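Tutorial sheet, problem 5. The two components below are modelled jointly, 227 residues in total.
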Amino acid sequence: AQSVAQPEDQVNVAEGNPLTVKCTYSVSGNPYLFWYVQYPNRGLQFLLKYITGDNLVKGSYGFEAEFNKSQTSFHLKKPSALVSDSALYFCAVSPSYGGSQGNLIFGKGTKLSVKP
Amino acid sequence: DAGVIQSPRHEVTEMGQEVTLRCKPISGHDYLFWYRQTMMRGLELLIYFNNNVPIDDSGMPEDRFSAKMPNASFSTLKIQPSEPRDSAVYFCASSLSSQAFFGQGTRLTVV
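Model answer (structure tokens):
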């Protein structure tokens, strides 16, 4: 079965410190990988995606993610966290069927809390 | 483009009533998705369309749920009859290539 796992329900980081939000996936073939962020009472906003190419992907707001095929992981990272980064983060995967997106399978989300 | 537009933003209804949620995707997008978000189950894909045709509705929880996409610019998700356990935030999303854009969601409360 295809799935996405975010092993941490919550990640707490001090402002200015690096942050990592973990994601592993189980999908056949070569999936497309995504990170989305959700602020309170808002919809999901796209952060970044991996389709092919360089394993390190840079996205919005200084975030980046590293694709590791052998570990089937796609961890989200930021060198220096801001209080305004506090939000709910979702990892998602889409099976790449002939280039079309298909559906997005989401992890359960990780709440990031950045303290001053 | 104004993005994906959902209406209403909030809906409170009594158990047994019919509820219709509406979505206007981004113009030109060929995929449309309906998701449901709850604390217990997270984000669940209910159904998605490609070029107005339903592709996968395996996530629709029961026959009480139905979704339509009569044209490229409009979709509805209907619950009839509604039950308290349907209370959730329902998101619509659309995409053209590999990136989905989400609406603000409809918060449904069934009392």
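Marking note: Chain B touches chain A at residues 4, 31, 33, 35, 42-43, 45, 48, 50, 55-56, 91, 93, 95, 97-105 (CB under 8 Å). Full credit if you identified this.
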